[in-house]
Here is the input.
Amino acid sequence: MIAANNPQLKSWIEVSPDSDFPIQNLPFGVFTSRENTPRLCSAIGDYVVDLDKMNQLGFFTDLQIPRNIFENRYLNEFIALGKKKTNEVRERISELLDTKNDKWNAKELADHFLYKHEDVQMLMPVKVNDYTDFYSSIEHATNIGTLFRDPENALLPNWRHLPVGYHGRASSIVVSDTPIVRPHGQQIPNDSKQPVFGPSKLLDFELEMGFVVGKSNPLGSPVSTAIAEDHIFGLILFNDWSARDIQKWEYVPLGPFLGKSFASTVAPWVITLEALEPFRVQGPTQEPAVLPYLQYSGMKNFDVHLEVIIQLENGQAKTVSNSNFKYMYWNMAQQLAHHTINGCNLNVGDMCASGTISGPTPDSYGSMLEISWKGTKPVQMPDGSERRFIHDGDTVIMKAHCEKNGIRIGFGDTRGKIHPAKQLDLA
Here is the structure.
């Protein structure tokens, strides 16, 4: 067992049982405050842990890492040190925060490196230069095929043979609490053969999990499923906003464009694969058998509980989805192996998202398109209003956590409030 994952570990910092950040988690992120420039951090309970300050205090001196590695705007350079070094840092943080620590004087120096969450601003954790979105939930793909095609042939012929994906827009991936402006675009009304232009009327969320590439592969050198996880630094909670009416008109024949590229929201924390090790589960049976390069051994799915909440401007809120990452038909190792099988080179900090995560029942669907069944089954909200899709003023909140043997590992939240479309001067 990885030492930092020991369920018996306890921090000298009080951590609530329902906290996302016990000592067994220790995620990585980037923060800033009134006193400090952006720098790398971890989290414990209600506190952000300033890793640059820890480094200045000499806690990492023997780990032989670059002196200014934590005084950085993004995690990319730290991730590029490799898993051996990043795991050593995580293990050291665990030692420093452990109640049984008798080697370091961390507790006495805590005021130098601990900040309350509410006193800091969390920033985008990774510089994302390339982004790929997959389509890997069989329940979601079946629902979409049923809604838009033939229920008897909901899945396209290739779907069970390869993890379908498309290259998305990296520049519009933003951190939680960034305002989301309703996008403009072309749409085709149901009773028309001619498109119209205007703000999207069918704005949607997509409940997803992303992974951050932690190790590059050279151009022309595929990565096998056997070593794919060596190339994955960690996971991040991901909301891939979608304008369904824009998407419907534009996606044939080449796939999503303006209906997706206006924004995606991520949580500020990257949860390491090592922290998630105890939560591995078997994935669904894949039939027919996949081609050899997509075959794998071991448990590659993770039992991560997912929740989506719509919060109204008056503060009232309703949970509209409870799903789980374990439902994914195509796992991350297969996604990465397929992504690189043609020789495509992935770089440190690149992000890949799972695609909408839907479960087998309506309460576990991962988008409003499915939850409202294309608008035919509106969701009743606490104030008496209805939601078929997302309204201006709504805040979509996503949460994720794993729980086993009394240990709860959380991912932080993604929050995005929808702001009205801007007035355009098209003259």
User: Anything to note?
Assistant: The longest strand covers residues 407-419. The mean pLDDT is 96.
